[in-house]
Each structure stands twice: as structure tokens, then as C-alpha cells.
Amino acid sequence: MSLGLNIRTNDHAVVDEIRRLRRIGARVEVPLRQIGQRVVTHARRRLGNRRSEFGSSSGRLARSLTVEVHDDFVRAGSPMVYARIQQVGGKIKPKGRYLAIPATSALRRRGVWPRDLPRASMKFVPAARITIGNRSWIGPALVRAQSTAEEVSLSGGQGRDARGRYASKAADVRLAIGEVMFALVKAVTIQGRPYLLFESQEQQFALRALRSYYQKQLAARRGGG
Asked: Exposed, middle or buried by CB within 10 Å (0-12, 13-18, 19+), for 156?
């Protein structure tokens, strides 16, 4: 499910500034986009400084954040399916038997999942020693199997996986034989850690942006008159 933060305010000062802009015929979308970009910039910073119990992230969530401007509000959000649960928290359950968690930073950075690799490159181990980030446990995992001709072709980034798809994002992911590639779990509980916020700093920025834009528009109209 995607996530969107609709930035609205009941602050009378901000509302008055928007009304003043509309009275002179100025485009309210311009300062609203600035406000949305400010929220996204701070959100990316929060995500970049975050380390989870499972280690560093791929950074794809931060890169996916976008801004949509509407008539009277701006929306900042992400289309990523896990964007909402990262913001508000929740429990993830598998559609099948297990959820796969990439065990190495290389797999996480490239966004590689079991479906992206040939089956022969992995082996199921019911009780492997798993360490991800600051967590360590014994449990089921997919570990690196012996090399196969198909996997060697993948390492150059030009081969296809067992389903005939190009798997360039798996290029140069090299692991030792027997190394855990993916931990397999029944469910994962994610603690919500909001990254999209519209707090006092952003609210003050919104007021400054609206007032500054109003003054520029008013000066331009006077000069043109």
C-alpha cells in the first residue's frame, strides 16, 4: 500500500496568506510545491540517518518520495508497497510459507530477492546461524549453493534467471558457498518510525514561503502596472 501525507493546516496565518495570494491571482501551486519539497527533503534525511535492527536499507524508499500539488493542499508520499508500514508500523505475513529477508548489505542495496536468482544458486537449510544487523538467531534460511553454469552467466549482469528474465540487479553479488543469503521467517513486526512529518519547523517554513511568494508577486504586479 502506498503512503501519502496530505499537508493541510488550520493555522490562521497560513490560511490568510493563501487567501491573499488568491485575491491577487497568484499561483498558489508554486509555494505549495516548495513546502512539499521541504517535507520530502527532511524525510529523505531521516531515512538516510536511520539504521534498523536488520542493518542498512537499500535507499529505494527515500528515492521514491514524490510531491503532488493540488488546489488547496500538497501531498508528499511514496508508491512503494512498504512505505506505509515504515511510517506507522504493523505486522507483515507471507503469502506463502515464509518471508525472505536479505541477509547481506549487497543483496539489500540491490533489492535482490530469491525470485531474482536461479534456484540452483541457493539451498534451503532448516537451522542456519543467521546474523543480520544487530540480530542473531538460528532458523531456516536460503544459503549459497555451489556455482552453476547458469549462475556464472548471471554474475556478469547479462544472463537470465531460471524464468528467462534478465537479472542485472543481481550482478556482482558474490557470496561464499554456505553463506546465508536470505533468512526465512513466518512474520515480521515493524515498529513505526515516522519519516514524513509536518511539524513546527515545516509549518514555519510554509508561512515564510507563502509570505515571500506573496511579496514577490505583489511587487511584480506593481512594477508591471
From this structure: exposed
Q: Which of 61, 143, 134, 148 has the alpha carbon at shortest distance from 102?
A: 143
Contact (CB, 8 A) for 181 and 103: yes
Residue 15's beta-bridge partner residues? Answer: none
Distance between CA 149 and CA 171 in Å, rounded? 15
Please name which of 19, 71, 27 lies closest in space to residue 213, comparing C-alpha atoms.
Answer: 27
Long-range pairs of 63-67 with CB within 8 A, sequence gap ≥ 24: 65/40, 65/196, 66/40, 67/33, 67/36, 67/37, 67/39, 67/40
Predicted local distance difference test score (pLDDT) of residue 224: 65
User: Does the pLDDT value for residue 162 go beyond 60?
Assistant: no
87, pLDDT greater than 80: yes
Task: Check pLDDT > 60 for residue 160.
Answer: no
Question: How would DSSP label each residue in 126-184?
Answer: EEEEEEETTEEEEEEEEEE----HHHHHHHTT--B-TTS-B-GGGTT----TT-EEEEE
Rounded Cα–Cα distance for residues 51 and 30 (Å): 34
43 CB neighbour count, 10 Å cutoff: 22
Q: Which amino acid belongs to residue 140? A: P
pLDDT tens digits along 15-63: 788 888 888 888 889 999 999 999 999 999 998 887 655 555 668 889 9
Averaged pLDDT for residues 194-207 = 88
